[in-house]
Design a protein that fits this description.
The chain is an alpha+beta fold. The protein has one domain. 26% of the residues lie in helices and 30% in strands. The chain contains two helices and five strands. Strands 1, 2, 3, 4 and 5 form a five-stranded mixed beta sheet that branches. The longest helix has 13 residues. The N and C termini lie far apart (33 Å).
């Protein structure tokens, strides 16, 4: 489970990172060691699910780990991780 308050903290920490890169991802993993983090471009995320949170420069999606394979979810009760998807400036 990833509570809404935790997701807001993750978003704030992500926004404060100097860059959305491996070093930033590692900082998030250290801050939330029980949460799985993945980084990709927003255009790599299937459009069928909306982001859990949208922020300037990135969107956050929730990862479901209750099935055999990881998948995206809109249900924070089954979320075990977060996809940080950077967005391109229009």
């Amino acid at each position: 489970m990833i509570a809404a308050e935790t997701l807001e903290h993750i978003a704030a920490a992500t926004a404060a990172l100097p860059a959305l890169d491996d070093a930033g991802l590692e900082a998030l993993r250290q801050a939330w060691p029980d949460t799985h983090f993945t980084l990709c471009g927003d255009n790599d995320v299937p459009a069928r699910l909306p982001p859990a949170l949208e922020r300037p420069g990135f969107n956050l999606y929730l990862i479901n780990g209750s099935e055999h394979c990881l998948s995206l979810t809109t249900d924070p009760d089954v979320a075990i991780g977060v996809v940080i998807a950077w967005t391109e400036a229009e």
